[in-house]
């Protein structure tokens, strides 16, 4: 086997599967916090939280462009060049999505802690110097040489969704400032657990139309988008963003109703007759788990919700109506942490 620059030969690759990989979050202050375990009575550090990721495509990407140019004829030939001749190396982009189911694990160690509440808070809280806080993410894709630490991750979007006869899913889109290779092998694998599914959750719509209870809902989706933007500086000798900053936030989503809810539909159609809105969406779940590291559940209260006119159509399937919505939580009650949620 020929060697490149007298380097050691790389061994023949093996067929490594993806399921031995892992995703871990290291939230601000996690490595320093001491937590008392009810089961053992001992203090331990709240270390990195390992999740049961069902998908992860967080990765470093870099584009290369070959721009078009006007060229003179190629000497000594008289015909023009037919190919591009210059290229531009674009900045490194580190981003991707991570999806996982919400867990009901009766956690016996801090590494089992479901990170949903932490992720939500760090996604919506801008009270820290009026900026989003960053955290580190560790990803082992499979083989040891494919383990990376993504430094200074920011949440670009946070999505909660659930459909009837399905599980509650969390999807976060992360942007990071840097990536470095690490030999970190991970902590013990998470214990067995039941995940939150459609019968564990509650979702209520409240407003002048009354209350639309969960028995109307076929599915729901809540999405918080921080609309991150990368900023670059000249002369830094690095093809990386100098900073990542959130823009004005968008809070939106949609619900699918079984049939058509007349009061909600008429309320949405009369939006022009109202000067403001006090409608809200409540969604969450409760957990029977008792261990201190286990999540007791959470409840999100999305305020100042505007509902769009429903979308309906005829098909051979069940009759449903889709209602999109947006939230404008710009009132004084939203200025405290956590920004738009009541979490317990």
For this entry, give a set of tags:
single chain; 344 residues; mainly beta; 13-stranded antiparallel beta sheet; four-stranded antiparallel beta sheet; 21 strands; 5% helix
Written description of the protein model:
This protein is mostly beta strands and 344 residues long. It has one domain. 5% of the residues lie in helices and 39% in strands. It is built from 2 helices and 21 strands. It has helices spanning 116-124, 262-269; strands at 22-26, 34-36, 43-45, 49-51, 55-56, 59-65, 88-101, 135-140, 147-163, 169-181, 201-207, 210-212, 217-225, 229-231, 243-245, 250-258, 280-286, 297-302, 305-307, 311-312, 320-327.
In short:
By secondary structure, the protein is mainly β. 5% of the residues lie in helices and 39% in strands.
Set out the fold topology.
Layout: E1 22-26, E2 34-36, E3 43-45, E4 49-51, E5 55-56, E6 59-65, E7 88-101, H1 116-124, E8 135-140, E9 147-163, E10 169-181, E11 201-207, E12 210-212, E13 217-225, E14 229-231, E15 243-245, E16 250-258, H2 262-269, E17 280-286, E18 297-302, E19 305-307, E20 311-312, E21 320-327
Antiparallel strand pairs: 1-4, 1-8, 2-3, 5-7, 6-7, 7-10, 8-9, 9-10, 9-13, 11-12, 11-17, 13-16, 14-15, 16-21, 17-18, 19-21, 20-21
Order of helices and strands: EEEEEEEHEEEEEEEEEHEEEEE
Q: Helicity range of the residues? A: under 10%
Rounded to an integer in angstroms, the radius of gyration calculated over CA atoms is: 25 Å
- Amino- and carboxy-terminal Cα gap: 61 Å
Largest sheet: 13 strands, antiparallel
What percent strand?
35-45%
Number of helices: 2
Q: Stretches where pLDDT falls below 50 for ≥5 residues?
A: 32-45, 332-344
